[in-house]
Amino acid sequence: MTRSNLIGGEMLNWSDLHPGDARPAAAGSAAVALLAATLQPEDSVLIAGPHAVEVITAVADRITSIDLLLRSAPDAEEIAELLGDTKGQVFCGSLDRLASDETYDVIVALDGLERLVGPDTAKLTWSEALHRLRDHLSPSGRLLLGASNAFGIERFTQPAITAALPRDEDWARDVADTAPAGLKPLQASLEATCTYAVFPSLVDAQVAVTAVDGFAAVVAAQAVAERNAGPVLMDPYRLLLDAAEAGLGLELAPAWYFVLGAKPPSVLPEGAVPGGKGVLLEEHLLAALRVDDQATLRRIIPEYVAWLGTGGNGSPDNVILDGTSYRLFGTAQELDVVEHLARFARRALEGGSRQPWPAAADPHTLTARLASMAGITVPTQEFSPDEVVRPLGSAEQLATVARLADELAHASARAILFEGTVSGIRRSLPYRVGHAVLNPARVIRRRLKRLVRKVRR
Question: In this structure, is the dihedral angle defined by the CA atoms of residues 126, 127, 128 and 134, taken in order, positive or negative?
């Protein structure tokens, strides 16, 4: 490959592949799968913007000619050295300085358009950058474009406490190069043939789906929850499932892939979302807990335990219930029966789910109660009796406090009512007459018992 060609606007002491104070380059198994489904061996390809090494090599392994446009001089030198035997060249500089008249069959810009310019580009709007990029696309070419969602699911789960603090890559730039806000304006600007919701982010695209529903929503929620494993404002797993149920999963995705001129498969990578009918067992059990449907719990738990006994190896969060049959959802878990139930109990408590049993407020008690439905006794030594599991999200914590306060108020009201009822009975005439009649009889009975004991001695 030709050594990097400086075209102007290059950043000499900056790296998007190895950033110090910037987000990493676009990467992920979904990105690689999209390239595999779109590229043909005879295609000429331009990779525009920062992409992880595994994404670039995935392209280089499939086609015969590849060009790259990078703004970072160190990155351009590194990629040129890495692809030394590959036909093509590396352009180092800003998109507005790319004067080449060459057109390409495929342009890959999965990182978006914001990092196609450097700090010395005075002004280049997102739509202008898209127009310049399209100028290098052949009439029948394909464009693979990524875009972050400014109002994605993470906006609800993580406070953007550093949003007002410019990062190093933001200094000395006066560009209006952000994408249009929202999915519909983007789709209107692009006229894409295919739109993917990307989870959990552009820099770690684990899964991309054209519809966020059913099992696809579960896979997406798992990816988002894994990325936001620390303290959060709202439980990301539950939030995404609720958004998907309301038909908002696509609009609230952290990022999107837009494909112009091709129709790849609906799920990336292939096999990431299980097929078939059914419902996630965890969702079925949580629904029963919320409405105090203990009959369903006492029916499902023994069936699930029996399935585990036949060789099944999955906790309720990765098991699909289809009528009366069970099948694994995802990777098998090497746990015993009690550990599978304990995992469900912990997840239910972390999600702030309502429990129909006031005493089952800790993992051990809830696990023991669930296990007892299948005739299993849980040893108390396996758990700490003082362990308290709090909901993951601040919103779920507040909801739990409000629910417990309401239940406590109702319990106090019932106690006050009971105490008033008992006090009224004690003051009633029948009670006092009965007490006056029975009290002498009790005294006589106690004295007779003492007299009998003395006689026996």
Answer: positive
